[in-house]
Design brief:
Strand order of the largest sheet: 1-2-3
Order of helices and strands: HHHHEEHE
Largest sheet: 3 strands, antiparallel
Radius of gyration: 31 Å
Number of domains: 1
Helix content: 55-70%
Shape: rod-shaped
Distance between the termini: 104 Å
Number of helices: 5
Structural class: alpha+beta
Strand content: 5-15%
Length: 130
């Protein structure tokens, strides 16, 4: 058989029906989706942890400022700092007062408990000169 005949014979081949090709593509897409679901879940958890750490930092800053303001007004800075926090974070908070400085540490909620210490937010507010 000559090369020209082979080419003509190959061009006469009948393509697969569209339904068979669509089934193959949808099956592959399903497999790819199932393979990527754990990665998508991990990325979502990491984003959630970063948002929780940012929230803890914001809460610690607000509480430290409230404690410093209480120092200026002559009231208890520790109580003022704790009162400035929402209920869920009060048991995850430490307040340290040294002179005219108020340091507040807040540990965010975490999915992995070992991350809580690494993501802990610490903010210091100064009430100014005596």
């Amino acid at each position: 058989m000559s090369a020209a005949r082979r080419t003509r014979a190959a061009s006469r081949r009948v393509p697969l029906p569209a339904t068979s090709a669509a089934r193959c593509a949808s099956g592959q897409a399903s497999v790819e989706l199932v393979a990527l679901l754990p990665l998508a879940a991990l990325v979502a958890l990491a984003i959630g942890q970063l948002l929780a750490a940012g929230s803890a930092r914001e809460l610690a800053g607000n509480a430290a400022e409230a404690g410093a303001a209480a120092l200026l007004q002559g009231s208890d800075p520790t109580a003022a700092a704790r009162d400035a926090l929402p209920g869920w974070s009060r048991d995850r908070t430490t307040v340290h007062v040294a002179g005219r400085r108020v340091e507040v540490r807040v540990r965010p909620r975490t999915v992995v408990p070992l991350l809580a210490e690494r993501l802990e937010a610490s903010v210091t507010a100064d009430a100014g000169p005596p």
